[in-house]
UniProtKB/TrEMBL annotation:
Coiled coil feature spans: none
Cross-referenced InterPro entries: Endo/exonu/phosph_ase_sf, Endo/exonuclease/phosphatase, RdDP_mobile_element
Keywords: Nucleotidyltransferase, RNA-directed DNA polymerase, Transferase
Database matches in SUPFAM superfamilies: DNase I-like
A Pfam family per the record: Exo_endo_phos_2
Superkingdom in the source lineage: Eukaryota
Organism: Amphibalanus amphitrite (Striped barnacle)
Annotated Endonuclease/exonuclease/phosphatase domain residues: 59-175
An example Gene Ontology molecular-function term: RNA-directed DNA polymerase activity
Identification of the protein by name: RNA-directed DNA polymerase from mobile element jockey
Amino acid sequence: MDTGSAKGGDVAIYVRKGLNFSKLESAPLAPADNTTEWCAIRLFTSNPAARDPAPNHLDIHNFYRPPIRPGEEDQRTDHFDPAALPTNRDTLLMGDWNAHHPDWDQHCGEEDDTGRRLSDWMALQNFTTLNDGAHTRTSYRGNPSTPDAVLCHRDTAGRCAWSVGPDLGSDHLPMITTVLMSGHRPRRIRRTRWAFHKADWTGFEADCESALATLPDDLTVEQLNERFTAVILKCSLNHIPRGARSDPKPWAMDPELVDAVRERRAARAALDADPGSAALRDQWVSAKRKAANTAQEAKSRAFQKFASEELNRPTSIGRVHKILRKMEEAVEIPPGQALGDHGRCAVEDRDKTEAFNRTYANVSRQVRAKRQDTKTKAELRTLNGRECQCGGARSGVCSPFSLQELEAQLPNMKCRKAPGPDDICAEHLRHLGPVAKAALLRLMNQTWASGLTPSAWRRATIVPIPKAGKDPKLTSSHRPIALTSHLAKLAERLVAARLTHVVERDDLIPCEQVGFLL
């Protein structure tokens, strides 16, 4: 959050995946306060629709009150008022207050005005600080102080723990606050993917050939698709790794940066042990600057490598597009953010799914017109009664697909695409052997001849994609993307290629009509 008029600072809250939350929009600041920066979330620990009367959420507020020193260079006025702060029990107020009082800063010789007003407010509202006396900042002069504090109600303090974290490069140290909460444990669901770059394709092909060599001849379309899909997945589990490892920042493992950070932390630890040493202070300042310069150089090298290598790979278009959108400050929707639509708050995944289903059902609901339906059904019966031009011989356009047609379409299938509900990808199909391809061709032809499609081909995984410039908390601000079976996509390519040939051969599209052929 950037308040615009305030200098420096900025506040943010990062929420781990698997935690459900919603953003708090109403700032607990005095109306005239245009310098204090703030952001907050409501963290849910159980479904708010449940009947459990116990508190099921925790409000986390992050503040930054800049140091205002009125004078010729600083024309700002401090209007910070503790009376505007929230006072409910399930609340944590944390941040850099730039306020000093012995309640949380044991190194201050004398309380300042803001520290005194905060302390008086805490006493009035039965609030306390979680700080244990450890300093949270070291100035460039080597003096320790504690301008940062975590405040909460005394009833909440009993289930909280506070400590100072490791040096992260700032003159401030991070504060670590642990809160015991009721409700279910947070679930961190990480979507796994096939690691095709580590696949043993030789073993995969051999196992598929062996498993698909003895398929019964009397299988229906549904049974054949189930058997074929089961074999592909079983062989994949044996020969293709699967995981969901997070990608670290490319510069995080830079050896020069690792050494510089180690030196910086060692220098700070030495200064904390002897705050009055001018030599140790100068050593820490030098190590801090060196680590910052090394980090910037590592970022530059990583970006140069990305621009020269990754941007030139056609298979990385999706990844490049996401990174470029981040550079343009595109808004990303955290997976745990609650949805609020029509007065309802959807927190859990099941509630969000039902909310999206209601929205899409209203948009795609088919309006039945009996007269039109009757007329359409009559036309369909007439068309179905007509004999095909091949006279039922299944020749010409109606003939079964050949192995040449199948092998011509397999390379055209796009790789690195998300699979449908059956979890089969184009990479699987492109690495099949001759026996497995014959089984795949049999499935395509059996579907083509009977006019029946497996039920798995008619199912899709719906992924809501946020629309640009829309409120992400509304379900109507997302457009649905349907991830269908790659086997169905292959069948579509085979049919489309044959129909395209007929259209071009018989000149069925007049020159006045403009369109696209797949």
